[in-house]
Amino acid sequence: MSNLDRKPAPTACGREAAIGPVRDLLAARQVRLGESTVVRRLLPNLGRRMVGAWCFVDHYGPDDIADEPGMQVPPHPHMGLQTVSWLHQGEVLHRDSLGSLQTVRPYELGLMTSGRAISHSEESPRPHARYLHGAQLWVALPDPHRHTAPAFEHHPDLPVVTAPGLRATVILGTLDTATSPGTAYTPLVGADLALAEGASPRLPVLPDFEYAVLAMAGRIDVDGVPVEPGSMLYLGCGRTALPLRAHTDGAVLLLGGAPFEERLVMWWNFVARTGEEIAEARRDWERGSRFGEVRGYDGLRLPAPDLPATPLKARGRER
To answer: Taking the model in full, what pTM does it have?
Structure first.
């Protein structure tokens, strides 16, 4: 998925995380994506740029798209990151410049590693299911791997951790004793936690990871804080267990990881270390080099927005 903002602001990202446990409720920003999809952008957020290596989080739906085209995101470039597609309802058809053509369905992992450069499109198939509900996430690649060869992975079967009233699907990284088959380049975790009404599990977590929880559905308290669907609770570091309580059937996404040790510049659909790298990537996309071609999408590719007038600089994470 893309950042379709025509005037994207540079995003300063860096290493600082809350030293101990916190409970910061993050409000979403409404962003139009493509022709008919509106998403709730949780990361980057005012004062909170990353959670571990997770650097971008959009939540969308549930949307009734029975009489709509649904998701229609034209070909666009990525650099220096991984995209994670995660659905609760609907389907997304992924095409990329490697020649990948894959329909991603609910509770399947679509993982694209951009490395040095890739381009892709995402669209609701025709015909498509009535409802579309999911999340799109980015993971920043660490310096030793950010120029790796681009790749796309599709994993329809993912490991599951269970407890009374809890079914946790491990999307990326490791939770408890279960590890996702998806390729990860930093210590992190992404997991879909489905809870039954009345469940109150204590989820084991790592004290040296920072965590956040994105509410997907239902009425669920996270560490005593009610988290409404479409909002995110940042939890900081220092926990060994995370208490959850479900007032109804529902689900949340757990995102966590070791605080990212590098300073980044995020602009449009690129993650880099310098403004010069961003400018070079934009030039390459505009002149049709480096990022390849997405074949089969019925429409034009996205043009790159103008660079901001002020220089793009990498900075530490600021609250």
So the answer is: 0.92
